[in-house]
Amino acid sequence: MAQELIATRQAFGEELTAIMKEHNEVVALTADLGESLRMLKIRDEMPNRFFDTGVAEANMVGMAAGLSIAGFIPFAGTFGVFMTRAFDHIRVQICQNNLQAVMVGSHGGVSNALDGASAHALEDIAYMRALPNMTVLFPSDANQMRGAVRTLLKHKGPTYLRMYREPTPVFSDPKRPFEIGKAYIEKEGIDISIIATGPQVAFALEAAEQLKKDGINAEVINVSTIQPLDVQVIAHSATKTGKVLTVEDHSINGGLGSAVAEALGENAPTPMRRIGVRQFGESGKYHDLIAKLGIDSAGIRKVAKDFLQTK
Questions:
Q1: Is residue 57 annotated as a catalytic residue, yes or no?
Q2: DSSP-based three-state secondary structure for 278
Q3: Coil, helix or strand for 121?
Q4: H-assigned helices in 37-102
Q5: How do residues 72-95 score in pLDDT, each as one tens digit?
Q6: Which among 4, 77, 130, 308 has most CB atoms closer than 10 A?
Q7: Reported pTM
């Protein structure tokens, strides 16, 4: 039976619409990307709680700050690559005031594949995890995205919620609660720890199945919260396997791999390799692009095998 494919942006739009019908304090904002973030049903059914600023990300963030101070819970969304345009406003207005506001960065990584380098968000996690008070989430599939949106109703403080344009495998248990700050062991193993975030978790699980044929028993960890990082789960796995491989659709600098390296350096020094993007994006079909960048299951398998052969 084929695995179900759903884009996390689709799950986000559906879940946000549902919770806004249940909670009058939740509001939606976008910078001219309501359709892309699946917010148009909100616009049509709850127009008094939907705000489109046009292509003005800084204004959107400022409005979100004001709405939060007034007692609302704003979800403010645009493409991840455009959210960083408003970095100073996120830093000063949202994070310095520790406001409950969700900055939603859609089309993360190279998932906006055909639109090319200018539309690929490859540095956004690095921006956001540098900020005090900021929680950084990158759910792995549609089920986790729905859980994250609901969890954020009660989460105090700023959040960056990253999501994907491309439909990706749905594999997580829909009944498993989404916990901010928790890493999930999706597959236990003893030979290598593959630590992934976002849809690359599904690719890591595919790679782990292929690695079985090579006699390699890989552990796969789903880091859907990049900040705060679940250092305990990661350090325990690293100590058990002795080798760590991180995987992300983000720049090799400043994202998940950097966060894991920092954590292990302070808590459980372990040999590791990082799989990430080492260039600006380029236009191409999604699966062709991730294959070229080495962030698909074949790329993960190759690096894991090469890593285990080194001494």
A1: yes
A2: coil
A3: strand
A4: 40-45, 57-69, 80-83, 87-89
A5: 999 999 999 999 999 999 999 999
A6: 77
A7: 0.97
